[in-house]
Design brief:
Layout (H helix, E strand, L loop, with lengths): L3 H14 L3 E2 L24 H4 L9 E9 L1 E2 L2 E2 L13 E9 L5 H15 L7 E6 L3 H11 L6 E4 L5 E3 L4 E12 L19 E16 L2 E15 H8 L9 H14 L8 H19 L8 H14 L1
Parallel strand pairs: 1-2, 6-7
Antiparallel strand pairs: 2-5, 3-4, 5-11, 6-9, 8-9, 9-10, 10-11
């Protein structure tokens, strides 16, 4: 079995071999964006690099970023425990290009990692592209040999990524894993897309614009790449699981909760153990990054997380 630690290391090492600088995770409290409650994506620490405000001594980066989605636009708190894939805390694996390479390199790098290094069957993968992104669709045909039936064009915001109301944005291409016909659900863009058969595992964002306000969008100084892959999601796929909470890391926390409480982890207390496992992670990392329980802002969110874990 491939552990989540091994997957993280494999991802970082692969991109490091391909000329990317390994950059440490930034704190969960954003240093450079007062509009964000918590760091919720790998690109947050690079926002000013994408917009040209800040320069780094590297043009390619790879990270495993600590993320919390428990407030603001991205809030998964109330879903935790009831679904197979929602978390308040998770790690986002990502590779980044700051004006160095674009789609022509990002797509081959992703495909090679998934199919060669991670060993995923090619016939289990399909992709989406923004509806008018012919370049990305052509690259998927050329690089991966995907037929048009497995390159799905999406015209909605699902395939146009934005950080928020303002900031860097651009069309994206999402890679999905097909768990097979024994699981209910249809492919992305279909009426049954909310089922669990087809699971998004990686989002490649082709960062081309900066959203200035609701009416104005400007081209970035140089087209760039921002990708994000949830460690827990790819871990479930590589460990042959259909549920993030059955991966080695989450299962260890659930077993610890069951041992401490004496409640069967797979019986009536199943949801509660999942809540405890997830909320322990987010609480521990938020506390480590200097957030303390309070009645407002980040501290209030932490207090809600801790209270929900103790119910």
């Amino acid at each position: 079995m491939t552990s989540l630690n091994d997957i993280r290391s494999g991802f970082l090492d692969y991109f490091n071999r391909n000329g990317h600088t390994i950059v440490p995770s930034s704190p969960l409290v954003p240093r450079n964006d007062p509009t964000l409650l918590f760091t919720n994506a790998g690109m947050v620490q690079f926002k000013n690099v994408f917009t040209g405000v800040e320069k780094r001594d590297y043009v390619r980066a790879v990270t495993s970023q600590k993320c919390v989605r428990a407030g603001g636009k991205h809030n998964d708190l109330d879903n935790v425990g009831y679904t197979a894939r929602h978390h308040t805390f998770f790690e986002m694996l990502g590779n980044f290009s700051f004006g160095d390479y674009f789609k022509e390199r990002a797509i081959p790098l992703a495909w090679e990692l998934l199919t060669r290094d991670f060993g995923l069957p090619k016939d289990k993968l399909l992709v989406t592209v923004y509806h008018d992104d012919d370049e990305a669709a052509d690259l998927w045909r050329k690089v991966a040999g995907l037929p048009d039936s497995r390159i799905i064009r999406i015209a909605t915001a699902d395939n146009f990524w934005s950080m928020g109301a303002t900031g860097p944005c651009g069309p994206c291409s999402e890679i999905f894993y097909d768990h097979g016909p024994s699981i209910a659900g249809g492919p992305p863009g279909s009426p049954d897309e909310d089922g669990d058969r087809f699971i998004e595992i990686w989002n490649l964002v082709f960062m081309q614009y900066e959203q200035i306000d609701a009416e104005r969008r400007e081209a970035l100084p140089r087209p760039s790449i921002d990708t994000g892959m949830g460690l827990e999601r790819i871990g479930a796929v590589l460990q042959g699981k259909h549920d993030n909470y059955d991966t080695d890391l989450m299962r260890a926390l659930i077993e610890a909760s069951a041992h401490a409480t004496g409640v069967d982890p797979d019986g009536r207390g199943r949801i509660h153990h999942r809540v405890v496992a997830d909320h322990l992670r987010s609480s521990a990392f938020l506390l480590a990054d200097g957030v303390t329980p309070s009645n407002e802002g980040r501290g209030y969110v932490l207090r809600r997380i801790m209270r929900r874990a103790m119910r």
